[in-house]
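Illustration 12: Putative metallophosphatase.
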Amino acid sequence: MNFLMIGDVYSKSGRDVLEKQLSSIVEKNQIDFIIVNGENISHGKGINKNHYDFLKKLGVNVITSGNHIFKVKETFEFIDSVDDLLRPANMNSFNLGIGTNQYNFGKIKIRVTNMMGKSFMEHVNNPYEVMDKIIKENTADVHIVDFHAEASAEKLAFAWNYDGILTAVLGTHTHVQTADERILPKGTAFITDVGMTGPIDSIIGANPEEVIFKEKTGLPTKFSPSENPGLLCGVIIKLNSKNKAKSIKRIQLK
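Figure caption equivalent — predicted structure in token form:
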């Protein structure tokens, strides 16, 4: 079985390159299941219903997110009515939505969990406590985690802690694809960051001029999404006959 994980889709540039490239990636690599981080898909922050529908029409199975999941007010209106748009499971339990769910693919049970780190991020609950509870109740054959975090060490520590228990721990949030994809000693596929699917000539998606102005002056500045051509970033995970990670491969496509 082959999984495709696409990193943070950023605004129109990200949507355009995803729409152009996704079907060929799926066909060429015989992809069975698609996960996309969509927390930046609507003008760089959040996801509205139109863009949720856009991803579903492309054949995306599950949409994960992160700290920007509720930046669009419209999300509150539909997130509880769908089971394939996840918010971080360790967010405040009073928040709408779910952070983990099981999906059936033929005879294979697939669990996708969205988790968020604590370092340099908005307050969330301890990811280990929440994950331990999810694992205790889990009955799926495959368990893939989108770990949305700032610190690379935090992502790696989380993956090592659950090595051999989780099928894959795939980092998101920093918008820069890392070159450390590997299978950990006990069999968990890992990458620090899947990368951003969005404008390559930008500063993590935003117009460089605005980011530079803020960096140089320290003044409050509103960032606008760059409209430069996009780069698609993702990883392909192949499983063996026992539903364990066999390989993980990075992809980048303009």
